[in-house]
């Protein structure tokens, strides 16, 4: 790939895209972002001065908009999605048409020479077995509409070929288009502002990854595409398969006045509970650079600046 490789990112103004887009520009790629700007905002404002950046306001489901953009792309990164179970449950038709059908449009419109780097969620593993790591060979068992649409999108991309899928752990960290509703981001926000959180099913475990490491994983996939193509890869911190209670204990080390209590009644509507192996992508030479402690410190600084009036998905 040359420095003028052209990358099309759908949904590139969102939480992940607002970090990935400048990282790709800094690495020497041409980047076009398509976004409907459903959250308004100016998360890509700093990119506008870059001569290799372009932006289009539009809908990733619209073939008339997408076809000419896809024709000019060497690499497509479909970030556009309704992300998270609550948002997908609010708009079930949108979840299917954006998360799955728009990826099908990309797969059918692009040539086999064009590359797709597909982000999905490791929530597709659903409920894991106690003390058994989920690998890329573990059967997928999504338990939400969000997880189902993303698993179906992954299959579309990998069946098409010349694609990589990244099964992302729960992402955390500050971004120009911030999301406070993600688990680590949410718990740190509560610790800073409320100094307390009530946990439902505090023993449920999941894996975590810093947003800048997600951007680094995409760059790694682009740079090592031929060796990695046509496979899925878990992307997470191997030292961060933590329960909600364990995560709160880490946050408490930074904010000693933070208190967390486990509810004796009630349950979490998000039933995900699993531990994940990230060994496969690590064997390709990728290693995360940002740990959970550093992310918590970063978030504490960020929450001195922002409030949750606009930085959520629901």
Question: What brief labels describe this structure?
Answer:
314 residues; Rossmann fold; seven-stranded parallel sheet; three-stranded mixed sheet
Précis, in short:
It is built from eleven helices and 14 strands.
In words, what does this structure look like?
The chain is α/β, with parallel strands linked by helices. It has a domain at about 5-170 and about 210-235: Rossmann fold (3-Layer(aba) Sandwich). The chain is about 35% helix and about 20% strand. It contains 11 helices and 14 strands. It has helices spanning about 15-25, 65-70, 85-90, 90-110, 145-160, 185-195, 210-225, 225-230, 245-255, 280-285, 290-300, and strands at about 5-10, 30-35, 55, 75-80, 115-120, 135, 165-170, 170, 195-200, 205-210, 230-235, 240-245, 260, 275. A 7-stranded parallel sheet has the order 3-2-1-4-5-7-11, sandwiched between helices. A 3-stranded mixed sheet has the order 8-10-12. It has a two-stranded parallel sheet with strand order 6-14. Helix 1 (about 15-25) links the parallel strand 1 (about 5-10) and strand 2. Helix 1 (about 15-25) crosses helix 7, helix 4 (about 90-110) runs parallel beside helix 5 and helix 6 crosses helix 9. The model has no long low-confidence stretch (mean pLDDT about 95).
């Amino acid at each position: 790939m040359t420095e003028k490789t052209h990358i099309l990112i759908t949904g590139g103004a969102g939480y992940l895209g607002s970090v990935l887009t400048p990282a790709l520009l800094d690495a020497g790629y041409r980047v076009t972002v398509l976004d409907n700007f459903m959250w308004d905002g100016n998360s890509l404002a700093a990119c506008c001065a870059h001569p290799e950046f372009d932006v289009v306001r539009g809908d990733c489901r619209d073939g008339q908009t997408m076809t000419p953009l896809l024709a000019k792309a060497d690499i497509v990164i479909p970030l556009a999605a309704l992300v998270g179970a609550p948002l997908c449950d609010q708009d079930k038709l949108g979840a299917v048409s954006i998360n799955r059908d728009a990826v099908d449009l990309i797969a059918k419109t692009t040539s086999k020479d064009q590359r797709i780097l597909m982000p999905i969620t490791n929530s597709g593993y659903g409920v894991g077995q106690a003390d058994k790591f989920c690998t890329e060979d573990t059967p997928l068992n999504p338990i939400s509409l969000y997880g189902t649409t993303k698993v179906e999108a992954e299959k579309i991309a990998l069946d098409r070929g010349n694609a990589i899928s990244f099964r992302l752990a729960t992402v955390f960290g500050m971004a120009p288009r911030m999301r406070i509703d993600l688990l680590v981001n949410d718990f740190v926000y509560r610790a800073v502002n409320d100094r307390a959180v009530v946990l439902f099913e505090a023993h449920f475990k999941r894996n975590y990854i810093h947003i800048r490491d997600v951007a680094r994983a995409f760059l790694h996939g682009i740079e090592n595409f031929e060796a990695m193509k046509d496979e899925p890869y878990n992307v997470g911190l191997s030292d961060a398969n933590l329960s909600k209670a364990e995560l709160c204990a880490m946050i408490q080390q930074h904010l000693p006045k933070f208190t967390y209590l486990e509810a004796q009644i009630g349950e979490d509507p998000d039933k995900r509970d699993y531990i994940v192996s990230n060994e496969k992508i690590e064997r390709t030479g990728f290693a995360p650079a940002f740990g959970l402690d550093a992310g918590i410190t970063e978030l504490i600084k960020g929450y001195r600046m922002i409030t949750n009036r606009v930085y959520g998905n629901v």
